[in-house]
Write a structure and sequence with these properties.
five-stranded parallel beta sheet, elongated
């Protein structure tokens, strides 16, 4: 098992008593500490390698904390720098915050105050780092995912652009529900990849023009777990793998593979279940022609509360319109009209927004 990398804190203070106290408190919460007594020494240590947080006194003889902050900001715009100052230098500390400081601890401080500020600043830095990584990685992940969904569609020709439709519809539904951006992205990619497990299903079953036998249907159902297994190779894909595994679960608990019911089913899987059913019904398949849109809408409504989450069915017409107009997402909707217009050959019924208590229940699930 890989060892956990502990945050590394640079402590700069020319008062030995204060420095010893900070070392004890920081080590007590599991942080690695690099202590120095001058700002110049602190800058040298900063240049030597990874530092995750800087704690610096303001008034020091060789170089003050403001000058140290400016030097650090020239090297790194994002590392958090907290000024630790006495009451007499509050004006200087406020100037430090204006120049890019991340927080302030006023001497004399209690251990509780000190630890709370350090944890708060480190958590804010982690969230900011995750957001930056998310914005960088998401376009790459989208590209890889779309390439893989194209491979699925190439093997399972009658689905056409089904995988891309599901991604866009799933994201549009999630946006209408007020889900956050990472969750919307997870649902979009879950839609793209919901059928990836069909790679492991024999063509004789996958492309059979007639009804499947009991044995063949049992084999076909394996695609959900096969797909989840493919995606579970990396722990960062766990939420996407859950959508792929559980998008055939039913609201009434009679789905597969786990027989989950209601809000036991992750919200992403509930959304993709509705989008999958609507897209499948309105698309030609080897064993049947596409249904007219009004029949597909009626079928969704008829099965709301049994097969499908009724709140998602209620807002789904608005989600289809929203997807067609455009979703504010990393992937965008390039080519959306050509892939979604077949689903809107007749206008969807008017749907009122979900009631506030319904949306709250979904978000807490």
């Amino acid at each position: 098992m890989a060892s956990v990398v502990r945050p590394r804190v640079l402590c700069v203070d020319d008062e030995p008593t204060t420095l010893r106290l900070m070392i004890r408190l920081l080590e007590g919460i599991g942080l690695d500490v690099v202590p120095v007594t001058t700002a110049r020494a602190g800058l040298e240590r900063f240049d030597e390698g990874r530092i995750d947080l800087v704690l610096t006194d303001v008034r020091m003889p060789d170089m003050d904390g403001l000058a140290l902050l400016r030097e650090i900001r020239m090297r790194d715009l994002h590392v958090p720098v907290v000024v630790v100052t006495g009451q007499g230098s509050l004006d200087t500390a406020i100037r430090a915050l204006r120049e890019g400081g991340s927080g302030m601890i006023v001497k004399p401080f209690t251990g509780q105050e000190f630890v709370a500020e350090v944890r708060s600043v480190l958590e804010a830095a982690r969230i900011r780092s995750d957001a930056l990584q998310y914005r960088f990685v998401t376009p790459i992940l989208d590209g890889v995912t779309l390439a893989l969904s194209a491979a699925i569609e190439a093997r399972h020709l009658e689905t056409g652009s089904h995988c891309r439709q599901l991604g866009r519809l799933g994201e549009a539904t999630a946006e209408l529900l007020g889900l956050d951006e990472p969750t919307r992205t997870t649902i979009r990619i879950g839609g793209y990849l919901h059928d990836v497990g069909k790679i492991g299903i024999a063509d004789a079953i996958l492309l059979k023009p007639g009804p499947l036998s009991v044995e063949e249907f049992a084999e076909m159902k394996r695609h959900a777990e096969i797909g989840a297994g493919i995606l579970s190779a990396h722990e960062e894909m766990a939420a996407i793998a859950a959508i792929v595994r559980l998008h055939h679960e039913r609201w009434d608990g009679r789905g597969y593979p786990s027989g989950l019911a209601g809000r036991e089913i992750p919200i992403g899987a509930r959304i993709i279940a509705v989008a999958d059913a609507f897209s499948a019904m309105t698309t030609d398949r080897v064993y049947r022609r596409a249904l007219p849109d009004d029949e597909a809408w009626a079928e969704l409504t008829r099965n709301a509360g049994s097969q499908f989450d009724p709140t998602i069915v209620e807002i789904f017409p608005a989600a289809v319109r929203h997807a067609l107009v455009g979703v504010g997402s990393a992937a965008g909707l390039h080519g959306a009209r050509s892939t979604l217009v077949p689903m809107l050959s007749s206008p969807p019924p008017t749907s009122s927004p979900p009631r506030l208590e319904q949306a709250s229940a979904l978000l807490s699930a």
